[in-house]
Amino acid sequence: MGIVMGALVLAILMFIFEWVRVDVVGIIMMVLLPLLGVVSPKEAISGLSSNAVVSIIAVIIIGAGLDKTGCMNVLARKILQMAGKSESRIMTLISATVAFISSFMQNIGAA
């Protein structure tokens, strides 16, 4: 129990003080817990076989690609241009855009 609490405190401290990136903290914990004998190596990577995890990773990669190529900026400018200065119109257009895009994605929340 003490080993698990120590690893948890270490992870929380790394999150709070940002000594390393969040994804690196996850990998460190995935390696550290089996090395400490808390879980087996098979248990440590068993979550990666979930469709939900793979889908979330894919969405993050696609989002980063859209951001780096500038597609997000083009879309944001278009929404602001169409909505003008009306906050309610901006929110409506953003909601409609998200609804349209999410209609092509699987529902990973149900997984």
Task: Provide a brief overview of the structure.
By secondary structure, the protein is mainly α. It has helices at residues 2-17, 22-35, 41-45, 51-69, 71-83, 87-102. It is elongated and about 55 Å long.
Map the helices and strands.
Layout: H1 2-17, H2 22-35, H3 41-45, H4 51-69, H5 71-83, H6 87-102
Structure description:
By secondary structure, this protein is mostly helical. It folds into 2 domains: about 1-45, no CATH class; about 50-110, no CATH class. Helices cover about 75% and strands about 0% of the residues. It has 6 helices and no strands. The protein has helices spanning about 1-15, 20-35, 40-45, 50-70, 70-85, 85-100. α1 (about 1-15) packs antiparallel against α2 (about 20-35) and α5 (about 70-85) packs across α6. The longest helix has 19 residues, at about 50-70. The protein is elongated, with a radius of gyration of 20 Å. It starts with a helix and ends in a 9-residue tail after the last helix. The mean pLDDT is about 90.
Assembly category: single chain
- Specify the helix fraction band: over 70%
Count of runs of 4 or more consecutive helical residues? 6
Strand content: under 5%
Number of strands: 0
- The SSE order reads HHHHHH
Number of domains: 2
Radius of gyration: 20 Å
Q: Quote the distance from N terminus to C terminus.
A: 30 Å
Which descriptor suits the 3D outline? elongated
The largest pleated sheet is described as: none
Mean pLDDT: 89
Instruction: State the secondary-structure class.
Output: mainly alpha
Taking pLDDT < 50 over at least 5 consecutive residues as the criterion, the unreliable ranges are none
